[in-house]
Design a protein that fits this description.
Pfam families: CAF1C_H4-bd, WD40. One of its GO terms (biological process) is chromatin organization. Belongs to the WD repeat RBAP46/RBAP48/MSI1 family. It is a single chain. This protein is mainly β. The protein has three helices and 22 strands. The chain starts with 11 loop residues before the first helix and ends with a strand.
Length: 346
Amino acid sequence: MKERGGGKEPTVDERYNQWKSLVPVLYDWLANHNLVWPSLSCRWGPQLEQATYKNRQRLYLSEQARSSFWKKGNPVKGILSSLGKGWIGQDTDGSVPNTLVIANCEIVKPRVAAAEHISQFNEEARSPFVKKFKTIIHPGEVSICSVNRIRELPQNSKIVATHTDSPDVLIWDVEAQPNRHAVLGAQDSRPDLILTGHQDNAEFALAMCPTEPLVLSGGKDKLVVLWSIHDHISSLAVDPGPAKSPGSGGSGLKNASKVGGSNDKPVDSPTIGPRGTYQGHEDTVEDVQFCPSSAQEFCSVGDDSCLILWDARTGSSPVLKVEKAHDADLHCVDWNPHDVNLILTG
């Protein structure tokens, strides 16, 4: 956006300084946590504790290696505010493995922090409000794979799904997984479940059903794939006893699968195939979303500029296809939780 009067467009530094001056007005609270590597994905986990002046909330960070693109020593700043929920993903230079980091974050409540304190943050500092809790070494070729998406299961927030540069969706019980040290040559953590069914890499489109333990994914194979993980998560999400994770060495499951499309040795994790595979897109599927009130209805968008609505009860063909919903690729879609007649695309 150009300044009034036909002036030059402000530089990035000028825009940043303008934003920084408005921080006390825009936010009830802000903490800056300087990250070592650039980030790709962002999402919060569940709230863990409530106190008088601040809450403690789970935060997920995925550190991802892309040595061919990112250069070491190029820090990026991660900023946390009390306005929403998100998980953060990072890239490394390939000297450390891909990791899924579980952290606990203290969120100061509204109208508690002083405006002077909010505005005087240090961009190069690591926030004392963010404390690492556990590290999972994510499978995948370090130089090419990155954890692009993290989604939590609404029925049990300790179970999350991750999308990387591979055809598989990985399911993790973040509480049962053992803590690992991210050093060069470290063995990958073993997912609690691997969802198979894509014929090509599925990198970004990922959603969890709000009403049932269903997972939805889209990929470069132009497919939308649906899984039910109810039978496999029953021991994780329903059984009140201590959960056992394949990564802890406590799994007796025999199925195995390679993860990440690399030369990794097979991991001792169970695999399941899809409940349904849906064809209708003519290019990569970039995002998917469930209907908030129905486990059988969902939608998808892709690089073919189409919005497609699906109903699992009617078969694998689209129920409704909006051709050229935009004049370019569609990368995101969301379904209004308050009015199911409204869908937003971008």
